[in-house]
């Protein structure tokens, strides 16, 4: 090799080293990721036993260790019974789920959508139905026939984060649900917040939207932190949608992204990207946050996110490595609808051989693989 130029010598070293580096990457696998999770709506009361069976038969054996349950108002709240859905989970129903989580080594994290997602399509959410004074945009009517886009820019309503009474109510719910689920963390949602700092709001109008968002995240975090609990949120509002080109759904186009430098670093970021495995986990980790990559219905995206997390944990600096916590599948249907699709898919060999199927249950099977013996 003495006749090689320095440039060619360096190339030879890199080529000879490549098997070593790829071998390092192969030493890590999905089971090495600290978080292997799923986020899904809590089951309806009549579906609890079926969901518990799924936890025992599928989540545990496949090595999942985190379950984020969107509870919202599907619980028999004692603090605010006026906010309950018509049919709700009882404390004994929840304890069945908690027991299944315990025997399968699964961390339970209940979720209530805070700030945004206070309406959906033509339906107002329970909080604003019962407390219309909390509405950030009371001048925007919920249409009988919802369409997007619309003149009001209405996707989902938000509550006003500066209303003096809103946290007395929502924190009662948070405390109650964290207690019944025996959880040490709570997921506050906080995604897709399009209504914030509305100019017609007497409290928020004219204020910095990033400061408003950061203030709400910090207020929720501080409330939980005082009890030794941790806050998890979706990460889209903390990404600059214009600079990155990611846009208004998986990132922010209303300037909330600057809140990333205003919130406590112990907030866990669930970084969801459904069309591509965007590399924003690196940004969150560089800012000092623990981050989880989240997929949905595209199996290839979910599998690439696993590969990314393994690579980050292998090749980043030791200061950065442990901030890349793992991956999580998100499901945006009810629990029963997901289980129906999963059972049909796993029982039909022809479906399982169709690599182009885009459904969350396909992502679940492809990402989390076969059951661990």
TrEMBL record:
PANTHER family according to UniProt: BCDNA.GH04120
Gene3D superfamilies for the chain: Glycosidases (3.20.20.80)
One example GO MF annotation: beta-N-acetylhexosaminidase activity
Domain spans labelled Glycoside hydrolase family 20 catalytic: 85-295
Entry-linked InterPro entries: GH, Glyco_hydro_20_cat, HEXDC-like
The entry's keywords: Hydrolase
Gene Ontology biological process: carbohydrate metabolic process
UniProt protein name: Glycosyl hydrolase family 20, catalytic domain
A Pfam family reported for this protein in Swiss-Prot or TrEMBL: Glyco_hydro_20
Domain of life from the UniProt record: Bacteria
The keyword Zinc is assigned to this record: no
Family assignment from sequence similarity: Belongs to the glycosyl hydrolase 20 family.
Claim: Hydrolase is one of the keywords in the record: yes
């Amino acid at each position: 090799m003495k006749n090689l130029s320095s440039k060619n010598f360096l190339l030879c070293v890199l080529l000879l080293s490549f098997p070593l580096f790829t071998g390092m990457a192969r030493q890590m696998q999905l089971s090495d990721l600290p978080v292997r999770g799923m986020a899904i709506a809590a089951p309806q009361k009549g579906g609890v036993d079926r969901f518990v069976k799924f936890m025992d038969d599928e989540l545990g054996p496949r090595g999942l260790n985190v379950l984020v349950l969107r509870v919202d108002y599907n619980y028999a709240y004692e603090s605010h019974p006026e906010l309950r859905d018509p049919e709700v989970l009882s404390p004994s129903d929840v304890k069945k789920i908690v027991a299944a989580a315990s025997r399968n080594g699964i961390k339970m994290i209940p979720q209530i959508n805070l700030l945004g997602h206070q309406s959906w399509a033509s339906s107002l959410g329970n909080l604003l139905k019962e407390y219309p004074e909390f509405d950030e945009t009371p001048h925007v009517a919920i249409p009988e026939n919802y369409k997007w886009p619309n003149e009001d820019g209405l996707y989902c309503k938000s509550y006003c984060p500066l209303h003096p009474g809103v946290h007395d109510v929502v924190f009662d719910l948070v405390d109650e649900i964290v207690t019944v689920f025996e959880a040490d963390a709570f997921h506050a949602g906080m995604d897709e917040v399009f209504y914030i700092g509305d100019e017609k709001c007497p409290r928020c109008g004219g204020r910095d939207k990033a400061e408003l968002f950061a203030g709400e995240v910090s207020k929720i975090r501080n409330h939980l932190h005082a009890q030794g609990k941790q806050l998890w949120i979706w990460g889209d509002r903390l990404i600059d949608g214009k600079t990155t080109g990611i846009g208004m759904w998986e990132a922010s186009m209303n300037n909330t992204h600057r809140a990333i430098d205003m919130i406590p670093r112990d907030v866990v970021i669930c970084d969801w990207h459904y069309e591509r495995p965007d590399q924003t986990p690196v940004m969150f980790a560089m800012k000092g946050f623990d981050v989880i990559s989240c997929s949905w219905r595209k199996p290839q995206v979910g599998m690439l996110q696993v590969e990314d997390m393994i690579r980050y944990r292998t090749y980043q600096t030791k200061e950065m490595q442990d901030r890349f916590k793992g991956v999580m599948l998100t499901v945006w249907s009810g629990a029963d609808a997901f289980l129906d699709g999963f059972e049909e898919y796993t029982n039909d060999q022809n479906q399982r051989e169709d690599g182009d199927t885009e459904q969350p249950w396909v992502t679940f099977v492809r990402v989390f693989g076969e059951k661990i013996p």
